[in-house]
Automatic annotation (TrEMBL):
Taxonomic lineage from the root: Archaea, Methanobacteriati, Methanobacteriota, Stenosarchaea group, Halobacteria
Species the sequence originates in: Natrarchaeobius chitinivorans
Stretch list, region Disordered: 81-105
Acidic residues bias: start-end ranges: 87-97
Protein known as: Phenylacetic acid degradation protein PaaB
InterPro entries: PaaB, PaaB_sf
Taxonomic superkingdom: Archaea
Pfam families hit by this protein: PaaB
């Protein structure tokens, strides 16, 4: 049976896949994982999981995505021509004035 091994280097970090071990039961898989993957680098903990228990979702199963254009998060993306954007224009003017004053000193 194949067991996948995930390693955490320091407390609080994510576990990352570091390889697998072949073992007939959970206890031997844990021992093999500790020997093969836990002693090579600093290790805080190991997760040892049967490969059959790991589920996969790929692009054929579901459409991943969403918008990759996140420019809507920035005020500078919006047009300052409208009356609704007057605060943005004032803020940009204030920033330009501050940069100019910094350059003069």
């Amino acid at each position: 049976m194949i067991w996948e091994v995930f390693r955490q280097e320091r407390p609080g970090e994510y576990h990352a896949h570091c390889g697998n071990v072949h073992a007939p039961d959970r206890e031997l898989a844990r021992q093999f994982a500790a020997i093969q993957h836990g002693r090579r680098k600093p290790t805080n903990s190991l997760w040892v999981v049967p490969r059959d228990e790991i589920g996969e979702i790929d692009a054929e199963d579901v459409a991943f995505g969403g918008t990759t254009d996140k420019s809507y998060r920035w005020a500078t993306t919006y047009s300052t021509a409208g009356a609704d954007a007057s605060e943005v224009a004032e803020s940009e003017d204030d920033q330009a004035d501050a940069e100019q004053r910094r350059g003069e000193s």
